[in-house]
Amino acid sequence: MHTERHPDRPWITTPVTADLLRGALDAEPTGRGLMPHRLPAWARAQYADGQLAMAESQPSGVRLAFRTRATAVELDTVPTKRVYVGAPPRPDGVYELLVDGRPAARSSADGGDTLTIDMTTGTAEHREGPTGTVRFADLPESDAPGAARDIEILLPHNETTRLIALRTDAPIEPAPAPGRRVWLHHGSSISQGSDAAGPTSTWPALAASLGGVELINLGFGGGALLDPFTARAMRDTPADLISVKIGINLVNADLMRLRAFTPAVHGFLDTLREGHPSAPLLVVSPLLCPIHEDTPGPSAPDPESFGTGRLRFRATGDPAERAGGKLTLGVIRDELSKIVTQRAAHDPNLHLIDGRDLYGEADAAELPLPDELHPDAATHRRIGERFAQRAFVHGPFAAAPGA
Description:
- Helix 4 runs parallel beside helix 10.
- The strands form five sheets. Strands 1, 6, 9, 10, 11 and 13 form a six-stranded mixed beta sheet that branches.
- By secondary structure, the protein is of the alpha+beta class.
- The longest helix is centred in the middle third of the chain and has 18 residues, at 258-275.
- The chain has ten helices and 21 strands.
- It has helices at residues 41-44, 50-57, 189-192, 203-211, 228-235, 248-252, 258-275, 329-344, 361-366, 377-393; strands spanning 12-15, 21-22, 26-30, 33-37, 63-68, 73-84, 95-99, 102-107, 113-118, 123-127, 132-136, 149-154, 161-168, 172-174, 182-187, 214-219, 241-245, 281-284, 299-301, 313-315, 350-353.
């Protein structure tokens, strides 16, 4: 069954190709559609980590962009639905449609593959399923009758998606370059979108909309680990504004000690500066996360939450281990402040935002993290609005007068 379309217009099928994509660093042809990636193939090949592979293939910030006079659009896609053993079913990923930059519709895809994850054993099972279709009907007319409009379909921020074809009741063509400044951001699952309401509601997407910029979101759930290949991918990506949110994944993965952390941050920033020597570069320290403020990682699922309908996390480290160099969020904030202060003496375009200015103690009392690690939809909005104020309105990303 197809979306209602104009009775005098036949359906036109257009294969999804890379020139229709924005916000992706790579597009991989597969036997079942084009898969957008947020890391290039050479970077993905440098470490075969299942968590990172899942996160970078979830197309947060990635969208299809085209011009058309169509009044109805369908997208054939193969989503990958995640199922966590012992947890309630996850909602389907959300596709959001913008017409001339304005929200017009939301939908989800039926069908798709299933990835079943058991967090207690660290195992995962992938099963193939049927192709799904996302449908949008009754698109609003242009202010100028018969004129083409700019259409964007934002892909789910938390659901791996392979794109097969578009069907429209009028021809399409790739959208022209938007002419906006490009903001390149890297962070953790919070930057990817965690429990946001949809792809336009992640805090970076909200901040980008308020700032009037084009977003490339390299927020990777569990993957903000100062990986050199991520720094090189960012170095090689054209951008006008750059930000890096550093901290929470290094603690909850218990990845490194302070001795390794400080040189790794310097190395990451050095690499960014090789490709972007003078762009505004903003380091964002961790948001408040009470379980890890003074307690090292690793994080682990809380067994007491199993079967309650809501998975929660806990810190398993010992605060006394800070003396041996184990990282906490407090330790990381102090060290990032020292690093940025030292470097800014020779790099006037390097800046720091304390993450607690985006989400701090008062916010945690009002809007606590539901699972102890990830913000909910209302908190994403608050973080996005505050980042926009501190970076785009009054901070280092503010547009030059007359720009």
